[in-house]
Write a structure and sequence with these properties.
The chain contains 3 helices and 2 strands; from the N terminus they run αααββ. With about 100 residues, the protein is mostly helical.
Length: about 100
């Protein structure tokens, strides 16, 4: 079911867009094209098709999960106004 001029006007109002008549007609054509593509995709029979995460078979190159930098927490917290047990203390903002 294609969109109408009234639908585009309503969408523009909801999105707070000020579309001229020419822009509205252009947008109407684009939206109807997108909706037509969606209808084509929904018409495809996908029963028995295994879901994929990527269109091509691939393996991610993973690196070992190893710590490569020294722990600098104490050095980073030296300039903080208040620290307790390795955590930054901040003023309470909600009572």
């Amino acid at each position: 079911m294609p969109l109408t001029d009234a639908d585009v006007a309503r969408l523009a109002r909801l999105a707070r867009l000020d579309l001229s008549g020419e822009q509205a007609q252009h947008t109407l054509g684009q939206l109807n094209a997108v909706l037509g593509l969606i209808e084509q995709l929904q018409a495809v029979d996908t029963r028995g098709v295994e879901p994929m995460t990527h269109p091509t078979d691939m393996a991610l190159r993973l690196r070992p999960d190893e710590v490569t930098e020294p722990d600098g927490r104490e050095r980073y917290q030296q300039g903080a106004p208040a620290v307790e047990q390795g955590l930054y203390l901040v003023p309470r903002v909600i009572e």
